[in-house]
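Researcher: Re-running this chain for the archive, since the previous output was lost when a drive failed. Same request as before.
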Amino acid sequence: MLRTLLCSNPVASGFTGGLHREVVARLREHLDLELEWPTGPAEARSISAAAAAEGFDLVIAMGGDGVVHHIANGLGGTDTALGIIPAGTTNVLARIMGIPDRPLAATEFICSHPRVEQVPAAMLTLDHGQTGVESRLATFACGVGLDAAVVERAEQEPHRKYRFSGLHFARTALTLTRTDFSKRSPELEVGTRLRSSRAVAVLVSLYDRYSYFGRLPIRFGTHQPGTLSLLIVRKLPTRRLWPVLYRLATGTRIGNVKGLEVWNGVSSLEVTVPNGSLAQADGELLGTPARFSVAARVDHLRVMKPG
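Model: Regenerated structure tokens:
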């Protein structure tokens, strides 16, 4: 039997005690299972890293994108695989991987001993100035500016997040764009090996979809596997919101909207953040770094996923 650790987040929107008991009972029929209840992000990362060091074959994250992010950060670059039982609001990485979206169905999937595959990740380096430098792994997306501000504002109304999910994030994004980001000057300095620009926001995707609006994937355009796709928001006045929303909703390329640029095939980038803009990775806030660097890491994370 695979030596397995189940790390659960009991405050995830889809988590219940009864569901957890069903999941544990089923997993124990097929796996050598141990249980952990991380009390916060740092503990989730340290528990999963310790499990990898102790030779666990599999660490399962039961919860939403947050617990998956932190468990993945403990496992990146190791031989221990990540399993996902989605029990959160959006469950972006699970959906990208094709993992069943219902917890019990995902449990049955894990019990079938599916393949473990190496998947891309992105290594973030955040320079916080006098408080030091932090490294973090992103599993599907990261960014500076608008997307992080949306996460911060949406988390302030958790009841709306759980009840309305994608609608709540869309409403928050529209409000912040109209009242704040449409008036900003492009102060972020964005650079890759081949090009540079100034922006009010930078959104980075590791896959051919950045996130989801309900069941609808949000795409920037053509994505090259193993690289990063960037949406550079140079200027976004209110009058351009509707063309952007239409293109996102229909999957149309948005790089031809004035004030936006899409950069595909990027291996690394660096963002200088002079105005204290928020950063995020996988929907987890990372503070306000002075410098934000991202590098693609091909085959850095092992995930139990459909073939």
